[in-house]
Write a structure and sequence with these properties.
This protein is an alpha/beta fold. The protein is about 40% helix and about 25% strand. It is globular, with a radius of gyration of 18 Å. About 45% of the residues are buried.
Length: about 240
């Protein structure tokens, strides 16, 4: 059974239909990539899942419908998102940002264990715990954004454009981290403009255009597809092989 299932998902912004009759599944333990050009509806899909965009259709998580639920309740049940652009609170310290990630939890001892796990994953966050988040580098802020999300102890992590605006070496580090998170048992739905990097770490992928899923399959097959490379991912066919 899928950990996350979307069926007939529609999202409108006034007269504009951003997502159309979208069906998508993520099984426990998978990394699933959601790919497509800017404006395809990828980020809107993630926002709909966590209750930040009004949607119709069915959204099922861990066997229960979460369609129409409040974001706080969705996070409390084990699903959280790292938004595009990181969105850390720049005037708050690193430690304060992490504490905000645990706002829905009620067990101080478990929250402290999560903090230690996050600081093990990201030693720089422990080193700079008292530093304002806005003074961190872009890569460090992305680590903080992911660490903050992990503080809610999610079963499923939604990552929206984690490589955006980062230097190539830092991008490599972020994708290495994604694989490490999977190895720790975390399920991940990844929206990413860097299609090659996303397909290299994903188990399966969906390709969106104009609010619809137009193709899906094992990531390796899509990675090797000349049709996908040329028409949907904006990458050279020789690099897709």
């Amino acid at each position: 059974m899928a950990l996350l299932s979307l069926s007939g998902l529609d999202v409108r912004y006034g007269a504009i239909q951003a997502v159309r009759s979208l069906d998508l599944e993520v099984a426990e333990g998978e990394i699933v990539a959601l790919l497509g050009a800017n404006g395809a509806g990828k980020s809107t899909t993630l926002k709909a899942i966590v209750g930040l965009a009004k949607a119709t259709g069915e959204i099922t998580f861990a066997g229960k419908s979460i369609a129409g639920r409040e974001t706080e309740e969705i996070v409390r049940n084990g699903l959280t998102m790292v938004p595009e652009g990181r969105r850390v609170f720049p005037s708050l310290t690193v430690a304060e940002n992490l504490r905000l990630g645990a706002a829905t939890r009620r067990d101080p001892a478990a929250t402290e264990r999560s903090r230690k796990e996050v600081e093990t994953l990201f030693p720089v966050l422990a080193e700079r715990a008292d530093q304002p988040a806005g003074t961190l580098s872009g890569g460090q802020q992305q680590q903080l954004a992911i660490g903050r999300a992990l503080m809610s102890e999610p079963k499923l992590l939604l990552l929206d454009e984690p490589s955006l605006g980062l230097a190539p070496q830092i991008v490599d580090d972020i994708f290495d981290l994604i694989l490490r998170l999977k190895a720790r048992g975390l399920t991940i739905l990844l929206v990413e403009q860097d299609a090659i990097a996303a397909l290299d770490v994903a188990d399966r992928a969906y390709v969106m255009a104009n609010g619809r899923i137009i193709m899906s399959g094992p990531a390796a097959e899509l990675r090797a597809s000349e049709q996908v490379a040329r028409a949907y991912l904006g990458i050279a066919a020789e690099n897709a092989a």
